[in-house]
Every structure is written in structure tokens, then in C-alpha cells.
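CORE FACILITY INTAKE
Project code: CF-77B
Contact: R.S. (postdoc)
Sample description: multi-component assembly, two entities in total
Requested service: structural model of the whole complex
Turnaround: standard
Below are the sequence entries exactly as provided by the requester. Do not edit them.
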Amino acid sequence: MLLVSAIVTGLAVGSMYGLIALGFHVTYVVSNTVNFSQGSSMMLGAVLGYTFAIRFGWPMPLAVALSLLFCALFGLVVERLLVRPFAERGSNGWLMATVAGGIVLDNIVLFTFGKEPRAFSSFLSQKPIEIFGTGVFPLQLIIPILGISIMLLLQLAFHRTRPGKALLAVVQNKDAARLMGIDVRRAIAFSFALSTALAGLAGMLIAPLFSVHSDMGTLFGIKAFAVAILGGISSTPGVMLAGLLFGLIEALVTAFAGSTYTQIVAFGVVILALAVMPNGLLGRAAATKVQQ
Amino acid sequence: MPIVASPRSLTRRLLLAVVAVTGFAAPLAAQEVMKLGLVAAMSGQSAKSGEAIVRGLSIAIDEINAGGGVLGKKLQLVVRDDESNPAKGVIAARELVQREKVVTLFGGLDTPVSIAIVPFANQSKVPFMGVWAAGTLITRNGAAENYVFRVSAVDVLVDKALVDYAIRKYAAKNPGMILINNPWGESNEAGLKEALTEKKMPYAGIEKFQDADIDVVPQLTRLKAAGADVLFMVANVAPSSQVVKSLDRMGWNVPIVSHWGPSGGRFSELAGPSSERVHFIQTFSFSGKLSPKAETVLAALKKKYSEIKTLADVTPAVGIANAYDAMHLTALAIAKAGSTEGLKIRSAYYAIDKYEGLIKTYSKPFTPANHDALSAEDYTFNYFKQGEILPLTN
């Protein structure tokens, strides 16, 4: 019973990490940059979803669609203001700029949304159903299915469609991609919009199992980055696999050793795994050309 | 319920933020005011508690200033945000004492922050008045020269009350503990163990969990397997609601006897209908029949803060009430001391004889051996019903 419960929780939370980490992955494979405000993007998704669905009482599909749209817009703003000005000058300033952007967003939400945690209740997290003698909310089963489906869709899009291939071409050689008629700036902007929308979706999925507040994304963002590195940030399935594994390790350690040890063991495993596999679980070593 | 602030309340929040950052910079000449400092969480998950404390202190200050102030000076509150971070709390306390020259410091909700400020307050001989954090070691800090006082619950006494209640109400024989993994949880782990030892009672187990835990089922399953018949819960509002949701998932209908964490926010919204099962301790509530003093304070609160409309808007009432009484007791002590010198104020706290407060009528609230104005008799048990805290009859 304890084992089943831990596995279900681990897979649900792990898929969340996976979704946010896919956001890191998407911008990395297109532009070699990442958005360190992913945790805040996740919080934004949850806060907007709550505002539209609960406060305004709009139908859930509309609330979800609008929230994702606004999260994508936030991604565009991050790219335009916090990443592009630095990346185009060859500076690494975007690292700090995106961290700062996340903190600014957290505080804006604190002052507008309010200071108290709120409940984003969903009919999918009200009545538990029984699986192998343990109570499980339907939402806990839906999250991993959705997470893995999105990973597969992304994988297909990157490798089987022309726009997907165009995105991957950008990172290999910007000038060549531009010469081939690919709008490089638009491709990079799109990858940021997609990444924040993925984080926003993760936020809305976890909110009914948790509570909605302005600093809910901080810890998730950090863990998701660890997951992205663990999976090999350039590999779509690797990132999702690492997310699921990280979630499972956390849940199993909590179940069988107590949550005092969860963070030590989970991050310890990440360090160990990276020591053995420096490129992550499914990542490939970048080929380095010898410069003459 | 408004979620996104209306422009008006947004302005208010911004104003509050400015006030929190700059202090209440009232246009009063330096000689005419006496500054009192507050170090509390004004942002983050516990921000609601800081707001309640500011309200309680401000209502009391308004009353005191309307009566001419203290030692001929108007009182002025200077607020600093500790962000629930002990290091930031100590920096803020130092700044308030050394730069703002506050006469007394008031503390906030977080035990870890208050514990960090205690050594500084004792060294600099500035009275530090706790109005919320219940950690036993805050006032019972072992310092030879103890400048720390409190008008709030004390963990070690709360834990005795929790054990008594569990036995009286539920005939508990083998209780389990589900505690937040921080110094507050540790303070109560010690207190609960001590209280159970006094009753010669065994316990089913002690389980810890984190603020960000989504699932507490594993810990609760272990307690269930060990035969726990009542759960003692110690955690703030959001993690407490995760415990209740996990119990729902397990379908385990065990009674929960809790410290006052759930009262710090919208517990019934976060935990759902099962929140009513949680019986928690309070030092004060505006529900039920009110004393004339409570009526006056409630009216003053509604007048000063227009967003207070229902009783659900003055939860958590403990923060308001503790802060209100603590401010009046402090003003009495300063007046008695006839000086703003820390040593003299400390002696004057001991000399307070009687004060008719909001929570109770205090008689000799502080002695050199006891720096806590409230005791176990002042605790009541309550539960949440649709957003409002209601008293339980026994």
C-alpha cells in the first residue's frame, strides 16, 4: 500500500518536474540559453488558472487556454528583454537577468494576487479512487499520462516535422539557418513561449494537489533544473525520464526513510549520477572541434 | 472572494509595502515621538500574520496616543519585514535598535526568527516582546539578563493542553505526532514528549514533513500502522492542509488535535470540508459573545481597515489580540519606568499589577521567573466552519 501510494505520487510530481524541465530543454536546444524563471512561470500558470477559473468562474477549458496564452506571452517578454539583449552581445548576463525576472514576477504576484495560499480545487482531486488498496486522486493518474504524451509530441515535432527541424537547425549554425530562410529570432522567441507555457501547464496541473501562492514555484524551478541536467538537457525523452526518476526517488525516500532525508538523498543521487554520466542519462557529449 | 486585488486594495497593499519599508514615517518631530520596532513576516507565506500584528499594535497605539502618549511622547511604530528568514530578522532588529533607536522590539510569527533575535536583544538590553511565535526557548532562553517577554502561547504549555484535550475529548491512549520539520516542530516534539511522559502515556510515533510536501500519506500510513488513535499536528496553514488532504485520500478518519498553525490563513478553503475535524488551540477569537473591550477593538479595526467586513477577515485573531495586549502592557511598563532605558523598562514589566486587556484581565503578568503573560488556562480549543473560527464547548 505504501509502495503503490509512493509510486503514484512520485510519478505525478515527477511528471511536473519533467514538464518544467522540458521548458529548459526546449530553449536550450534552440538557442543554447535557458530561462531561470521557469519556477515563476509555473507559479504564473497556477495563479492565472486560479484567477480565471475560480475567481472569474470561467469554464475550465477557457481558463486553461488563456492561462497558457499569458504564460507564453511572459516567455516572449523574458526572451525579448532578459535574454536577447545579452545573448546577442555574447554575454552570459541572461543567466542573472532571468533569475531576477523570476523574483520580480514573484513579488508582483505577491502584491496583486495576495499573500495567502489559496485552494485551486478541481473535481479531479476531490474523491479518491482505490487502486491496489490505496486512495488516489484521478488527477494524480492524469498528470503522468499528459506529461509523457507531451514529451512524445515534442520528440515527434523536433524530428519529424519541418518547423521542428528548423528550430533545431538554429542552434547548430545561426547564419546557415538564416541563409536557409529560417527566421532565427522568431524561432528562439517561439522556443521561450513554448517553454513558459509548458511550465504554466505544470503549475495548473499541480495546483489542485497543492495550494496556489506566489512563491510556490521557487523549489520546483530549482528541482526541474536539476532534472534537466540529470536527463541530459539536449535529450527530450531523457529530461522526462529524469523527471519521473527524480519524483520517484523523492517519494520512495519519503515513504521508507522519512522526509527528513528526501532532499539529501534525491540531490545526492543527482550528483552521483552526473559523476558517472557527465552528459546526463540520455544526453550526448557535445563534439568539440579542435581549433587550429 | 476577491483574488486579484481591486485597484483600491492594490493601492492599499502598495501603501502597506511602502510603510513596511520606510516605517510609519509620520510627520512628527523627533523629540515628540517614541519609536517601537516590529520585526515580522510582511511578505511570503506568513505575510498575513505580519498584517494582523501591525493591526493589533496600531489600534493599541492609536488608543495610547489619543490619551496623550507615553511620557509625553506619541508612540510610533517602525515595521521591518523579516521574510520569515532568521538572518534578515537579526539584521532588521539591529537596524531598528541602532539606527532607529527603538525603545522596544516586537516579534512576529516565526519561532526560528525570534530565537535568532533573542541573543541580540539580551546583549543590547532592549526589551523584546513576542506576540506570536510560541517556541519555548524564546522566553526561557537561559540568559542571566533576560529581556525577552511574551504575550502569546508557549509551546511547552500548549503541548500539555493538547495532550489533556486528546485524553479528555477522545480518550486517547496511543497518539501519534505529525510535525513540521523545523525548529518549531522540534520545540513541540520536546514539549509533547514531556507532556506524554508526565501522563505515563506511550506514543505511536513521531513523523516529520516539509512545507513543500505534496503528499503526507507515507508518514500518516506509518502512524496508522502503529495504531495511532489521535494525531497531534504542528504546522502552519498550508502544510497543515496537506495533512488533511492526505488523510482524505487514505480515508482515515482519525481525530486531529492541533497547535494553532491552521488559524493563520484560509484553512477551510485549503483543506476542504474535512478541515472541521481539526481542533486547534487559540488564545483569542472574535467569535461568540464578545466582551465590551472586544467590541470596542473590533469596531476600531473595522473603522481603521475598511477591508475588514466579516469575522473571517479578522482571522487569525490571535495575532491581533496578542499584539494589542502586548502593546498596552509595554506602554504601561514604559510609563511606570519613567524612562526609555531597557533595564528600567524590564523592571517595570515586573511591576505591572493589573491590566484589563482584550484576552483577559492580567494580574502580575510578568515576574523575574515568568516572562510569559499567558498560561495554559488562557487557551481555548476551536475549529473552522466555512472560513470562520468557532469555539468548541469543551
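Facility notes:
- Residues 3 and 212 of chain A are 28 Å apart (CA to CA).
- The first helix of chain A runs from residue 2 to 31.
Invoice: internal transfer
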